[in-house]
Amino acid sequence: MLPLKKHKFFANVIGVFLIIGYIALAVYLGRIQLFDHDKYIKLAKVQQCKKIELPARRGSILDRNGSKLAESLQVGSVYVDPAEINDISSVAYHLGKILKLSPPKLVKLLSKDKRFVWIKRKISDEEELGALAKLSLKGVYVKQEYHRFYPNEELACHVLGFTNIDERGLEGVELVFDDVLAGKPGYKFITRDALQRQIITADAEVQLPIHGNDVQLTIDANIQRFAEEELKIACEKWMPISATAIVMDPITDEVLAMANYPMYDPNYFKKYPPNTRRNLAITDCYEPGSLMKPIVISGIFEQGLVKPDDVFFCNNGICEIEGRILHDTHGGYGKLSVSEIVAYSSNIGMAKLGMLMGNEKMYKHLKQFKFGEKTGIELPGEIGGIFRPLRQWSKKYSLVSISIGHEIAVTPLQFITAFCSIPNGGLLSKPKIVKSTVNDENKITEESPCPQLVKRVMSSNVARNIMNPILMKVVTEGTGKNASLLEYDVAGKTGTSQKAYSDGGKYSHEKYVGSFIAYAPAERPRICVLVMINEPRNGAYYGGTVAAPVVREIIKRSLLYLGLEPARFQIAMK
Fold first, then answer.
1. Domain-terminating residue out of 217, 248, 283
2. Does 194 share its domain with 318?
3. 36-70 in b/e burial notation, b at 16+ Cβ within 10 A?
């Protein structure tokens, strides 16, 4: 046994160490309270509190009647906190089995030195989410998100565009109106105990999300469907490399339908090559050929240079003008009136008429239609086409070429906008495809004016009393007979243009653009339809053959859908 004095010595030493320890602990605790208080409060919040994002619902895209063309549906997305997972192999096995994912790949994800790792996004299968909830795997969570859905699949795909997995717009209306549609996410703080169980508190901080606004288009889903169906039928018959159809209200210049072929499903846009996703109605331009003749001749009438009944000799189908040989592709004509030159689409007659104007007057007339400029429609990727300045015109050839629709290139939208000035009584308006934006309370937040007048490009007398009868004659007697309807009077024009080789030199004798444009009913127009078939095959390429029947069926179906009584029926009733 140790002597008593040694016992006291060791006791005193231990006491001193204890006192020192208590003092050190007190100093440490004091430092925590006085100096490191905020640091540990933050650390505690990180461990106990978690900020959860409350996603904002992306606004819907609606047609003019309120039907949903694009909407966002709530789905679940699975993520993990690897720091909370004890048995990685077991969790990987269960997740792989339920979510149909590779366990080895999951092991790598679960082994990451992060507190948040996505496992699978946007799960719409409720059985998968239900099975996951039943297992209640530690460290595995489900976050509510929204998934962009296009209920009509291919319908209006080139207009709508699509979004990425985070619902950011990448093409079409989705891109241009991304800020309007997106909304602003909210958040909430949740508190958890040491076992990571959620504790419900009355004073939890919450910021509710602001959902995105809806965008209402001028598109009519039914007319869009008519255009797509008829265009597809024609493309399956003529096998072109592409085709476009546009339906417009000629009075307001609202786009009722805009279709391109081939189409794609924006729900699965990654499965399609990029060229199928381009909106050819605004991104590609073509020489319009004979479609241009009504625009050109309206200027000749405005100048008072001719009357509809004036007669010109068309040289029986072949003629040399300014050292250039011209042919009439639809037959050899002798004498034709000005009306017949348009109706039968005589290149020789049009060249002679164009020469009456001269370069400067022709340029000024066409320039007021805004050729060579973007229309300004609310869609991405629009080009302005090609309309060279007057100083670049050839003194010998340009006037003749432009009179028959060459040396100028237009987008389908650009041309139908210009052409609609005829059924519109001589007024050029800006085309529009968006009517308004609507907030979450169904109140209009912004509305586009309609129509948006650009300028008067011809007198109402020329448009209604001269051009309208001539264009009706194209359909009743001329090259547009395939667009004739028993139910309604149709006014229109055919176009067939050779495509130039890429070097900008000679024109191809194998590649054509066949087109047709028309409005109806001719006396009180409700719709104008343009169809362009790019490089048709299977033995035909004339616009009157490949495009006019498509326009005819779109007009007929659309006017019946709009409730317009057939004109012949009205006459019979009288």
1. 217
2. no
3. eeeeeeeeeeeeebbeeeebbbbbbbbbbeeeebb
241 and 211 in a common domain: no
Which among 390, 457, 445, 453 is positioned nearest to 421, based on CA atoms? 457
pLDDT band at 400 (very low <50, low <70, confident <90, very high): very high
Which is the catalytic residue, given 290, 398, 497, 558? 290
Please name the helix (run of DSSP H) or strand (run of DSSP E) that holds residue 46, with its range, or none: helix 37-48
Residue at a domain's end among 188, 217, 246:
217
Q: 3-state DSSP: the chain helix, strand, coil percent, rounded to 5?
A: 40, 25, 35
The residues, ordered by sequence, that sit 6+ positions from 460 with a Cβ below 8 Å of its Cβ are 425, 426
Residue 290 annotated as catalytic:
yes
> Residue 362: in which H helix or E strand, if any?
helix 347-367
- On whether both 196 and 267 belong to a single domain, the answer is no
CA distances from 489 to 191, 338, 572 (A): 72, 21, 15
Which among 14-18, 261-265, 507-511 has the top mean pLDDT? 261-265
| Cross-strand partners of 255 | 248
Start-to-end CA span in the chain (Å):
136
| Residue 22 within a domain | no
Whole-model pTM?
Answer: 0.86
How far apart (Å, rounded) are the C-alpha atoms in residues 522 and 543? 20
* Whole-number Å distance between alpha carbons of 418 and 458: 11
Domain region containing 448: 221-573
Do 405 and 270 fall within a single domain? yes
Q: Are residues 405 and 256 in the same domain?
A: yes
- Mean pLDDT over residues 529-557, rounded? 96
Q: pLDDT tens, 343-369?
A: 999 999 999 999 999 999 999 999 999
Number of domains forming the structure of the chain: 2
**What's the alpha-carbon Rg for the chain, to the nearest Å?**
35
Do 335 and 370 fall within a single domain? yes
